Structures are given as structure tokens and as C-alpha cells.
């Protein structure tokens, strides 16, 4: 099969690798219909995370089940399925508590289970894969729906987690820090969860337009202290009832807390890269911090019906498409911010 492999900083290659097979009774093998590049994939590409040896990459996919192990009963060969970016058993104490990302026998796709490939071995398939009823290998989802389903494998669920963690409620004012795919999906999630006002912090015209399409009522283009002041002016000096931090840098975290009103919560889902929360401000202003790696599997039963009903279209963040063989170009485009998120089609 063809698979995407990262060798070093800036070195993405499309290579031929052995087809994966069922190794454990709980495994499945999925033939990928669509996969994509994630913002977090750019961290090793940019050298922020070390690459000790070449390995498969990618953790998002929608596909068709091609083989299942003897213990897999929740999905069958021929089913169209969505996979969250982590695999989990669905039965352990953490999965039952909705924290599938801490599954006792789980893990994150990548390496030997890299999803930017024609085929993916899915461990703990019964607890991981979610069937999309009404579709099959012979009748796959139409392209627009496929994009929406693919977004639910990570970025839509991650944006949803940010809004949930921040405590977005009916009528609340929400600020979203970050205009990548997760931040844009955070706008969509905040609207769905009842926010009356959503301020998107973005300095890119195309992303501003998409944020407004998703329901943002205001856009702040400035960054740093200028951006923080602009948000405070929009909120009459009060700040936001909930803040979604969707970047993970020291600056983004500083901004998130600067625009949070006393008694509010910052929901953070950006992979942390530098800095720490301002504990003194948190203490003095009773501002909370919640979130972390998103348990997307817990949210798929909520998100998929919204997508299938046409209530949300998170696939709009996939603003470019390339064949899997051109994955290196997809990484280049996203690194240069020429695309929000690139779909790769095997």
C-alpha cells in the first residue's frame, strides 16, 4: 500500500509499505476513503517535536471495513466507519467515564497505525470505530458528507471539547483564540451549544469568512495586547463568559486568560508548546482551566447525527484536496498557511 512517512524535519515522503493485517482478535483493517493533515502533524514537520526515526503519520480517517478480528462484533466487513484519532476499548473505567483518550489499553493513531495511508490497522476496533448507517463499500457517502464525517474524526470533536470544557451555555459570550481548523470548529461548536455571541480571533480574511459562516458574530484581527484590548472593548470591559484556547502557545494562553471574565473558564485543546497558565490571575479572578486532549469517541454519537441531518458542515475546514501521493505538498501548504486543512484521497 501507499503510506505517508515522516523522516525528519520538513521531510515527508509517500512510500510503499506492507499492507496491514489483523494481528489481534480486537483488530480491524480499514480501507481509507479519505484522510487529512492535522495541525498537530505540523509540530514534528516543523521540528518542534523530535523525529527519532522514520514512521507513519496521520490520525484521521473515514473508510470501509475490510477485515475484522474474531472478537469484533460492533462493525462488519463493508461498513463505512469514522475513527476518532485515538483508539479505545469502550469498556474500561476511563472509557465508561467518557475519557476514551485515557483508555487502559488504548493509544493514538500514528507510526505503525498511521492514517495517511491506503489501509489502516485499527486496534480495539469494537470500541473505536463508529458505523455510518446507510452507506457501504458499494454506496459510499457523497463527497460533501464525506468531508463532514472526516472533520468529526478530530477537529470537530476537539472544537466541541473546547466548548464543553469552557462551559459554553445558552446566551453566553464566547471568544475563540485560534483560527486553524480546531478554532473554526470551536466557533461552530459554541454556536451549537447555545452561545449568543462568538468572537473569532483571526487575522486571515479567508478564515474570518469561514468563522462568520460558522456563526461568529464578531472578528478580531489583532494579536497580542492589541487583540486583547479589542476583545475587552467589544465586551464593554467585562471579557468573555467562556474562552476556547485552540492553539497551544504561550501567547495564545496569555491572550485566553486576558480576555476571560472573572468566574469564567478557559477550555484549552491546543497541544501545549511553551508557557504555563497565569496562576496568579486565575486565583485572583476565579478563572478556571479545563480541557486537554479531546475524547472524540465520546462526542461522535452527538456529532454524527448533526452531520447526517445537515445541521452542521464542519467539512468546510477542508479547503484543499490532493492525492495521497502528494502528501508532502499538503504539508507544505498547511505550513505556509495557504490552506486551513488538506484532504488526502487515496
Main sheet: strands, sense, barrel = 7 strands, mixed
**How far apart lie the N and C ends?**
10 Å
Helix content: 25-40%
Q: How much is the average pLDDT?
A: 97
Q: Looking at this structure, what is the CATH superfamily of the largest domain? A: Medium-chain alcohol dehydrogenases, catalytic domain
CA gyration radius, whole angstroms: 20 Å
Number of strand elements: 18
- Which stretches are poorly predicted, pLDDT < 50 over at least 5 residues? none
Helix and strand sequence: EEEHEEEEHEEHEHHEHEHEHEHEHEHEHE
CATH C-level class of the largest domain: Alpha Beta
**Which shape, going by the Cα principal axes?**
globular
For the record, the count of structural domains works out to: 2
Query: What is the CATH architecture annotation of the largest domain?
Result: Alpha-Beta Complex
Number of helices: 12
Describe this structure in words.
The chain is built from twelve helices and 18 strands. With 346 residues, the protein is α/β, with parallel strands linked by helices. It has two domains: 204 residues, Quinone Oxidoreductase, Chain A, domain 1, CATH 3.90.180.10; 135 residues, NAD(P)-binding Rossmann-like Domain (Rossmann fold). The longest helix has 13 residues. The mean pLDDT is 97.
List keywords for this structure.
Quinone Oxidoreductase, Chain A, domain 1; 346 residues; 18 strands; alpha/beta; 2 domains; Rossmann fold; six-stranded parallel sheet; seven-stranded mixed sheet
Q: Summed up, what is this model?
A:
The chain is α/β, with parallel strands linked by helices and 346 residues long. The chain folds into two domains: 2-154 and 295-345, Quinone Oxidoreductase, Chain A, domain 1; 157-291, Rossmann fold (3-Layer(aba) Sandwich). It has helices spanning 42-45, 93-96, 125-128, 143-152, 155-166, 181-192, 205-213, 224-234, 250-258, 279-285, 296-308, 327-335; strands at 2-8, 11-16, 28-36, 55-56, 61-68, 79-83, 86-87, 107-108, 119-122, 130-136, 173-177, 197-201, 218-220, 240-245, 260-268, 288-291, 320-323, 342-345.
